[in-house]
Specification:
5-stranded parallel sheet; binds adenosine monophosphate; globular; Rossmann fold; 8 strands; alpha/beta; 3-stranded antiparallel sheet
């Protein structure tokens, strides 16, 4: 199964992708996670991406396209994948289309997770992320078992620099202007399934499952 997960920052893509990957035996490819790992390890890619990320701006298309081209070659993706946070612009979507054609692959669907913007600021400011594995929590709706500590690996939970008020507003603006047009782009290709992203995490997941079971 090959999927794209589209939706604004804070919609819950990462959290839902975790369950999807377990149940459908596919791999989550999050461009944000890959970039953060590169920053942590001080790579050239990480250094190039840093200032854009901290300001809540998009990293330039060509950098992201080159990165995803390498990622898509990885053998662990044979069973399928869910792209989380990519594509984020029309040129990225077009580049992805070309890459998939070259590889003889087709997308099953684009899941569009819909959450109103008033809810997103509240969700993002309450988000905490594990420094070690990148798993995210919500302080109220999805808290860790022990304050400040990741359930999975005991890593320290921190607030991402771009999960603070000013960068959040910028990220939401960037989403409206640059990423939202992709909903129309994929709808026109008959490749979009809309999911209501409001409600309990497991209720949202059961709606996702209903859609995905059509593509098994
Ligand atoms: P995320 O974890 O998906 O919210 O991504 C965090 C940040 O990484 C974004 O605000 C961008 O600066 C950068 N980023 C992640 N994915 C992309 C992408 N597909 N295109 C451009 N920038 C990206």
């Amino acid at each position: 199964m090959r999927l794209i997960f589209l939706g604004p920052p804070g919609a819950g893509k990462g959290t839902q992708a975790e369950s999807i990957c377990k149940d459908y035996n596919i791999v989550q490819l999050s461009t944000g996670d890959i970039l953060r790992a590169n920053r942590k390890h001080g790579t050239e890619l990480g250094r190039k991406a840093q200032s854009f990320m901290d300001a809540g701006e998009l990293v330039p298309d060509q950098i992201i396209i080159d990165m995803i081209k390498e990622e898509l070659k990885k053998p662990e993706l044979v069973n399928g994948y869910i792209l989380d946070g990519f594509p984020r612009t029309v040129p990225q979507a077009e580049a992805l289309g070309n890459l998939l054609t070259d590889m003889g692959q087709k997308l099953d669907t684009v899941l569009v997770l819909e959450v109103p913007s008033e809810e997103l600021v509240q969700r993002l400011t309450a988000r905490r992320t594990c420094r070690t594995c990148g798993k995210s929590y919500h302080l109220i709706y999805n808290p860790p078992k022990k304050d400040g500590v990741c359930d999975l690996d005991g890593g320290e939970l921190y607030q991402r620099d771009d999960d603070k008020e000013e960068p959040i507003r910028n990220r939401l603006k960037v989403y409206e202007n640059q990423t939202k047009p992709l909903i129309e782009y994929y709808t026109a290709k008959n490749l979009a399934d809309n999911i209501n992203g409001l409600g309990k995490i497991d209720e949202i997941y059961s709606n996702i499952k209903q859609v995905l079971d059509r593509y098994k």
